[in-house]
Design goal:
Elements (H helix, E strand, L loop, with lengths): L30 H11 L27 H13 L3 H17 L3 H17 L3 H17 L3 H18 L2 H17 L3 H8 L1
Helix pairs in contact: 1-3, 1-5, 2-3, 3-4, 4-5, 5-6, 5-7, 6-7, 7-8
């Protein structure tokens, strides 16, 4: 009853003139804004390190902030050819962000999977954690709850090891939501508490 305001019809049925005072000032974050914010949370390793002395501009030297996905894919190929994992990580992050911005969640899943492999090859635990968090959210958004639960559970363990309570709590929520969707209510309740 607390969410309803008294009005002329004095019934308890919500109708268009019933306003919830708590919702009046809420600026609820859209799913796309949430994913974009998550992508920005993946740590940056600093400026990309060039693997060769500067030469003429190439796709590897493109502006990652303004390049389109095709240009970024070309830069990714060059980074891989040069075995420049730091550059590869930067380019993969840019591709993933662009895919999220363009509502290409399934493509972003593959990109963040590649990013996870790159971070793991560098034994970068912070980058791995942020990417596991992003992958679990993307998996849940694309209704792949089993994979979402797997990535979230792995992330929870890593967050505990790193002492990252904020990320651990986010991952517990994703894990609980995914388990709930899988019909594992008791496990979900444990994740929420």
């Amino acid at each position: 009853l607390a969410g309803f305001m008294a009005d002329d019809d004095d019934d308890l049925i919500y109708d268009e003139d019933d306003e919830d005072e708590d919702e009046a000032g809420d600026d609820e974050e859209s799913p796309q804004d949430f994913l974009a914010r998550m992508a920005q949370a993946i740590p940056d390793e600093g400026p990309p390190v060039a693997s060769e002395p500067p030469g003429p501009p190439s796709p590897a030297a493109i502006n990652l902030e303004s390049a389109d996905i095709g240009q970024l894919r070309a830069a990714l190929g060059q980074a891989r050819q040069a075995e420049d994992v730091a550059r590869e990580i930067h380019v993969l992050k840019a591709i993933g962000q662009r895919q999220i911005d363009q509502h290409m969640e399934n493509e972003a899943l593959a990109t963040y999977g590649e990013l996870l492999s790159a971070y793991e090859s560098q034994d970068n635990r912070r980058g791995t954690l942020a990417t596991l968090d992003m992958l679990s959210v993307l998996m849940a958004r694309t209704f792949n709850f089993q994979a979402a639960a797997m990535h979230a559970a792995r992330g929870v363990n890593l967050a505990e090891e790193l002492g990252d309570d904020d990320t651990r709590m986010q991952l517990h929520i994703t894990l609980g939501d995914s388990r709930q969707q899988l019909g594992e209510s008791e496990l979900a309740a444990a994740d929420y508490s």
